[in-house]
Design brief:
3 domains, ribosomal protein, five-stranded antiparallel sheet, Ribosomal Protein S4 Delta 41, Chain A, domain 1, 208 residues, Structural Genomics Hypothetical 15.5 Kd Protein In mrcA-pckA Intergenic Region, Chain A
Length: 208
Amino acid sequence: MTGDKKCKICRRAGEKLFLKGEKCFTPKCIFVKKPYPPGKLDSDRKHKSVRSEFGAHLIEKQKVRNVYGVGEKQFSNYVKKAKNKKGVSPMETLYESLESRLDNVVFRLGLASSRPLSRQLVSHGHIIVNDRKVTIPSYQLASGDKVSIRGGSRDIGPFKELATKLEKHPRPEWIKFDMGSGVALIQGKPKDANFPFNLSSVIEFYSR
């Protein structure tokens, strides 16, 4: 995704969606200069528009989808799966599906500075799951799975001097990382502590 496209996404959402290391958190961020939706006329900017319920749900859905880098079809399938699962909150199931993606776990581990980079690393075959190379960013990890960097990839650019960075990198409690072996163990379901998005609003969008 290009920097200009990211800026438009942030401006439509009304807040910065991307993480440190990406353009949203640099002095060049267009959102700072133009904190209003793209295409707005000067006369429109003077009046705060009232967002409809549908519009609010749409914006929240777009926030989550774009932050995780998931296409519309795949995202709607995640929501459908969450709604059809019996005995569990659909919001909880949706959150688990998003967080359990291999590209997201690579990012959470600190092996990549952003989710787009983690998707690239997975797609190019640099990541191993249970001693097997996996090139599908959306691959769903489960409790007991082990994730590591492929042996032949450990000296390439993105992974150089990684040990120092990993020592200080905060990781979620459901991922256990062994610095010595460089192997991460998925030891439970993702917990949604301090999750910044309203997944209830996302479910409502697809229930209309």
